[in-house]
């Protein structure tokens, strides 16, 4: 009979959290490295709110670090203007800002610019 590739009984939640921190919040890499079955990890997370909160804190710390690096590029001279512009657009899109593609003429009439352009193109063809 083949040996079970998992050693979940040997892994503690503390070991999981330590490795998760080392892997910058990458859950998949952590439980694979520890040979911890996903269902065991999911059970831990569901049943232990302190464990779940610790995971969220690690992931949030990683997110904040990434944002700080992105802002270093946006505000510094570390990249070309085109890359800066893309980073700014990415940041705005991921924080709820969108390009409005419609015009409100009055309180009852709204024009969808994309649809209007599409209609004009179809008429010209």
Verbal overview:
With 125 residues, the protein is mainly alpha-helical. It has helices spanning 13-22, 27-33, 38-47, 49-75, 81-94, 113-124; strands at residues 102-106, 109-112. It is built from six helices and two strands, in the order H-H-H-H-H-E-E-H. Strands 1-2 form a two-stranded antiparallel sheet. The longest helix is centred in the middle third of the chain and has 27 residues, at 49-75. It starts with 12 loop residues before the first helix and ends with a helix.
Features:
2 strands; 6 helices; 64% helix; 125 residues; 7% strand; mainly alpha; two-stranded antiparallel ribbon
**Residue fraction in strands:** 5-15%
The arrangement of helices and strands along the chain is HHHHHEEH
Q: How much is the average pLDDT? A: 82
| Tally of helical segments | 6
The largest sheet is: 2 strands, antiparallel
Helix content: 55-70%
- Global Rg: 24 Å
Distance between the termini: 69 Å
Q: Looking at the structure, what is the overall shape?
A: elongated
The overall strand count is 2
Count of all domains: 1
């Amino acid at each position: 009979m083949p040996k079970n590739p998992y050693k979940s009984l040997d892994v503690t939640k503390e070991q999981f959290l330590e490795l998760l921190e080392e892997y910058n919040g990458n859950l998949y890499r952590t439980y694979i490295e520890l040979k911890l079955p996903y269902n065991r990890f999911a059970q831990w997370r569901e049943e232990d709110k302190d464990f779940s909160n610790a995971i969220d804190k690690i992931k949030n710390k990683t997110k904040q670090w990434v944002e700080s690096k992105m802002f270093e590029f946006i505000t510094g001279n570390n990249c070309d203007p085109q890359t800066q512009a893309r980073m700014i657009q990415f940041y705005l899109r991921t924080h709820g800002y969108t390009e409005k593609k419609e015009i409100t003429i009055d309180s009852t009439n709204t024009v969808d610019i994309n649809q209007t352009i599409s209609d004009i193109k179809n008429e010209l063809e």
